[in-house]
């Protein structure tokens, strides 16, 4: 009996660290950006600061979870004046809502080897249900998650007052992300 207990304890000591391995965000290789149209011209912008906590199990994707928090004040359009403008109340209202977040509620195997992800997206105090396909691939010891989430900016009150007019800035926005995690 002692041998069985000792063997079980040794096996658990070997397996437990592997089971408890948490994936860490590789900030240098990861990015979150958006694409929108202003006067029908595509504009790319990025968020310089964000965190992602991903608990991914390739064998059981339905048991996987993800949380992403984005520092709205790190939004970068490539021009200091534009950056300052979009942080104002009419746009992101960063003084009151400095963070946007996504929390997954389900993940399951989807078409073409992708995952179908469902979750809650919160921007500017408004939370909506969203879904999108997510590709996952292994690169060495890293996991790489790529996706694109289409949203309507007005659904989150981004662009209030005169900026509700979609003739200048389109309502459609693509949130794109490339997240690399390490063990």
Task: Describe the overall structure.
It contains two helices and eleven strands. It has 183 residues and is mostly beta strands. Strands 1, 2, 3, 4, 5, 6, 7, 8, 9, 10 and 11 form an eleven-stranded antiparallel β-sheet that branches. Residues 1-21 have low confidence and may be disordered.
CATH architecture: Beta Barrel
CATH hierarchy class name: Mainly Beta
Given as residue ranges, the uncertain stretches (5+ residues, pLDDT < 50) are 1-21
Tally of separate helices? 2
Report the order of strands and helices: HEEEEEEHEEEEE
Overall radius of gyration? 20 Å
As a percent range, the share of strand residues is: over 45%
Please give the number of β-strands.
11
Largest sheet: 11 strands, antiparallel
Count of all domains: 1
Our measurement of the CA-to-CA distance between the termini, rounded to an integer number of angstroms, reads 36 Å
Helix content: 10-25%
CATH fold category name: Lipocalin
Mean pLDDT: 89
Q: From the helix content, strand content and strand pairing, which structural class follows?
A: mainly beta
Key words describing this protein structure:
183 residues, 50% strand, 2 helices, mainly beta, Lipocalin
SSE topology sketch:
Layout lengths: L1 H18 L4 E2 L5 E8 L2 E7 L2 E6 L9 E7 L3 E2 L3 H7 L12 E11 L5 E9 L2 E14 L2 E11 L16 E14 L1
Antiparallel strand pairs: 1-11, 2-3, 2-11, 3-6, 4-5, 5-7, 7-8, 8-9, 9-10, 10-11
